[in-house]
From TrEMBL, chains A, B:
One of its GO terms (molecular function) is DNA-binding transcription factor activity. InterPro entries: HTH_LacI, LacI/GalR-like_sensor, Lambda_DNA-bd_dom_sf, Peripla_BP_I. The keyword DNA-binding applies. Pfam families: LacI, Peripla_BP_3. This is LacI family transcriptional regulator. Gene3D superfamilies: 3.40.50.2300, lambda repressor-like DNA-binding domains (1.10.260.40). Residues 2-56 form the HTH lacI-type domain.
DNA sequence: ATTAAGATGGAAAGCGCTTTCGTTAGGAGT
DNA sequence: ACTCCTAACGAAAGCGCTTTCCATCTTAAT
């Protein structure tokens, strides 16, 4: 491995000067600059980032901690897009992304591990919040996605508004018996979407029977299936259902079809997320779109500002959602 | 930041002993072990990985370089699953994944950057191969996914076999006019699938007109659309088409429907990959499934062995594919 | 009691880099 | 000719850790 010393020897300058050239310090002569750069080229020198990190206490890495209770990790159709957008943004400023593992050595906690790695910042995606305290109380710049955390920054969609949009749309279509397949209430997003649902139905003067709101778990296909089965089992099934997640909605649609009913003729279904799948299924799913692009980008901006000490106080960014009309809802 | 020195001071042992405890060296007393571990706990000590890496020349990071010509990065429905599986496997051995950016500082080449980061190994996913040389000629342990590289290890599906399976199935269904929407021939996988197609059709004694094989580009939905338009424009359109990728197949199906024809009644379509989408679309897509799980896991195993010096010579692992019958193909 | 062997602990060098602070040389100003 | 300033460069310390090699202290064997 060729080091800064090799360059120094080759150019007959000191390692100090070499380092200065490499870091664009002002007080080096043009001549020195040229010689050093040339030697770097010839010897194929690559700086060692560990050494630099050790000396500067800056790693140029951002830690990513991913939701694991969904089981798919980075293959998640929604979060993978968010993170990709996040990555694109931080890349502009020369940061790399470090995906850390949970079972690292003896230290079980991801937080410890991130600390160990010396990342400059952390983005945590849809954790359940148990770990949140460690991050929010530490000096490590952190941004949460999909979950507001006291004493930390976060960015998430306007979930409540999304729930209201869904209900408004369904109501406008003439539906009055509107059900809701909710996400597990341990998740902030789930709670908010349900809140939007309740708010809007109340606003419209609708009385929603208790059984019309059913827990579908962690936004999974299977959860959607089970929830829909229960809805269909009711003495007075709904004519429309607002499902808090697209995958869950697909499960629901499947059950409806299996019951010999049609979507949207017999039951209208509206989802949430707008994952890539949604426009391809049958029928194409009407849904509340989250702006993954913007969520990723905004969280990157927030985090970068924090890292650079530009924004001292924490803040939440709420990203607008949008109703995407496709064919899974129809007028009554 | 508390360091090994703080622990030494607190326990009245030397940093050497502290280090030995932390690294499970044999020759330290139980007493010392206990005291040190306790101090570690009390002072909230976290080892600094940069320092350790600098001293040991081992980073416990694996670099991931992703295909960019597909544009979606890590949100790719197929590769994200492969990488997730890869991640799960390397996590078992305490490695973290580093996703590096391309435009790092002045050094444009990803390879240089990986070198700079001191990763212990690299997994490159569906690059186009131009960069391959740098990796294969260097000492950096590397494994390629979806592309065999001379002087390097690789793992990929049995693409040729997949192509043959598809044709065999279609043939068995009674089809004789079988077309093929291929991937761009700069990709190894595309070439192999096409090769399988040609081999099988020849085997069956079929004569496939030249226009029956059409380039669909980089496996995109749009590419599939355009290709199918051309196929439909033929004086004698095919009764079945083997599409080299699922997303591309969806585009093809869409065009068929738009033309007022039905899948599979009028035209049978079989895809390749089996992405999550495939089973949800209408009709559920018959396809050749790639074992993403196994591909990811195998490449991890291969890479880890290389890193640990267990396997000197390079090798390719070919992962079997499987025909998944759904409803997009029917007997003639 | 004496010695050898094993167990335990520590000094110090080194990993590759940054950065502070001095030193030197040359040019400008008088 | 002399002083003063500035520009250019380098010595050395330090970042936090590992690891070799040597010193010391026990313990068991004779």
């Amino acid at each position: 491995m060729t080091t800064i010393y090799d360059i120094a020897k080759a150019t007959e300058y000191s390692i100090t000067t070499v380092s200065k050239v490499l870091n664009n310090y002002p007080n080096v002569s043009e001549k020195a600059k040229k010689k050093v750069l040339q030697a770097v080229e010839e010897l194929g020198y690559t700086p060692n980032s560990s050494a630099r990190t050790l000396a500067t206490n800056k790693s140029w890495m951002i830690g990513v901690v991913f939701a694991e209770h969904l089981g798919v990790g980075m293959a998640h159709p929604f979060f993978s897009e968010v993170i990709e957008s996040f990555k694109k943004q931080v890349e502009l400023y020369d940061y790399d992304l470090l995906f850390v593992s949970r079972n690292m050595g003896l230290q079980k906690r991801t937080y410890k591990h991130l600390k160990h790695r010396g990342v400059d910042g952390v983005v945590v995606v849809q954790s359940l919040g148990e770990e949140a305290i460690e991050y929010s109380t530490s000096k490590l710049p952190t941004v949460f996605i999909d979950m507001p955390i006291e004493k930390s920054s976060a960015v998430y969609s306007d979930n409540k508004q999304g729930g209201m949009l869904a209900v408004d749309y369904l109501y406008g279509l003439g539906h009055r018996k509107i059900a809701h397949i909710a996400g597990r209430d341990t998740m902030f997003t789930a709670v908010e979407r349900t809140r939007g649902f309740k708010l809007a139905t109340r606003e419209k003067g609708l009385t929603i029977p208790e059984q019309y709101i059913v827990d579908g778990g962690y936004y999974s296909y299977e959860g959607g299936r089970e929830a829909m089965v229960r809805l269909l089992g009711l003495e007075a099934p709904p004519t429309a259902v607002f499902v808090a997640g697209d995958e869950m909605a697909l499960g629901a649609v499947k059950v409806i079809k299996e019951a010999g009913l049609r979507v949207p003729e017999d039951i209208s279904v509206i989802g949430f997320d707008d994952i890539p799948l949604s426009k391809h299924v049958d029928p194409p799913l009407t849904t509340i779109r989250q702006d993954k692009q913007l969520i990723g980008q905004q969280s990157a901006v927030l985090l970068l500002d924090k890292i650079n000490g530009l924004s001292k106080n924490n803040q939440d960014k709420i990203v607008p959602v949008q109703l995407i009309k496709r064919n899974s809802c129809s007028a009554l």
